[in-house]
Amino acid sequence: MSSIKLIVGLGNPGAEYAATRHNAGFWWVDQLARDAGISLRHDVKFHGLAGRARLDGREVWLLEPQTYMNKSGLSVVALAQFYKILPNEILVVHDELDLPAGQIKLKQGGGHGGHNGLRDIQAHLSTPAFWRLRVGVGHPGNRNEVVNFVLKPPRKEEQDAIDDALTRAHHILPMLLAGETGAAMQKLHTDDSKMRPHKPAPGA
Fold this sequence. Notes:
The protein is of the alpha/beta class. It has helices at residues 24-36, 72-82, 116-125, 146-150, 156-171, 173-178, 181-193, and strands at residues 6-9, 41-43, 48-55, 58-65, 90-96, 104-108, 131-136. It has one domain (6-193): Peptidyl-tRNA hydrolase (Rossmann fold, 3-Layer(aba) Sandwich), CATH 3.40.50.1470. It contains 7 helices and 7 strands, in the order βαβββαββαβαααα.
């Protein structure tokens, strides 16, 4: 199995989006950068904030596209091609409407589920075979409310649940970097099943 060599956090650039549900991917990559003691720097050729980090004794690229969500693939493919990183060596961290806040799942491949960032990355890489860390943010219940929902901050109890889920993701990082993706998936999902994800109150 291939080790993860590039971790991409999805979100929208700008202070007005920083705390919104759609930026959950940025939150985890920001934490990884802090853990590695590095600052992500804007790189024009990669259309994003990028940095090479040393985590758990292994080097990995961290990337936050600054293209807005629906153009994320431009940034991902630019860095991946430059450093000859294959799709199955890429982990994309993103908000997931189909999981309640506090739940988190790891998978490889599959559809984009209507997520504009995943859709564009899949189109640019010409394959869905990259890895995804799906950070549950919940669903508004009405499909017409999705855009408004993801562009707003989580409620406090949701944010606490999401933060806990991202902490659990940290526990599998050494396995991901070592190429032990099967074991990482099993551990994350086992730990996840023990948690009680936050479910919105009726009418919320």
